[in-house]
């Protein structure tokens, strides 16, 4: 049984790599912009794949619009994947917004906004 999980993970990794290239090279919609495919989770029966994406430098609203555009291009991307992968059945792609990068950027801004402590007193060299 553990082989099923590792195969699903391997297929997910391959789909992630291929999708990143396909979106970059084939999707011409300006609403998509610079996309990072952060993770692909394939179901146990390979019927669907959850594709987690984030737009670099995009606000949350723009990212949601990007997900709608990619969902609309899902069948096109699935057909292109079928030509590149050696799978009997290519899973249905379900795009979802991944807020992980936004959270990380927000935490970095909060850390940068904090004033550094004075630290331990150092002797003045007069």
Automatic annotation (TrEMBL):
Gene Ontology biological process terms, A to Z: maturation of SSU-rRNA
Subcellular location: Cytoplasm
A single MF term (Gene Ontology): ribosomal small subunit binding
Gene Ontology cellular component terms for the protein in this record: cytosol
Cytoplasm recorded as keyword: yes
Main location: cytoplasm
Record keywords, A-Z: Cytoplasm, Ribosome biogenesis
Domain of life: Bacteria
Pfam annotation, one family: RBFA
Purpose of the protein: One of several proteins that assist in the late maturation steps of the functional core of the 30S ribosomal subunit. Associates with free 30S ribosomal subunits (but not with 30S subunits that are part of 70S ribosomes or polysomes). Required for efficient processing of 16S rRNA. May interact with the 5'-terminal helix region of 16S rRNA.
Similarity annotation: Belongs to the RbfA family.
HAMAP family, alphabetized: RbfA
Database matches in PANTHER family: RIBOSOME-BINDING FACTOR A, CHLOROPLASTIC-RELATED (PTHR33515:SF1)
Quaternary structure (record): Monomer. Binds 30S ribosomal subunits, but not 50S ribosomal subunits or 70S ribosomes.
Official protein name in the record: Ribosome-binding factor A
Organism listed in the record: Spiribacter curvatus
Gene: rbfA
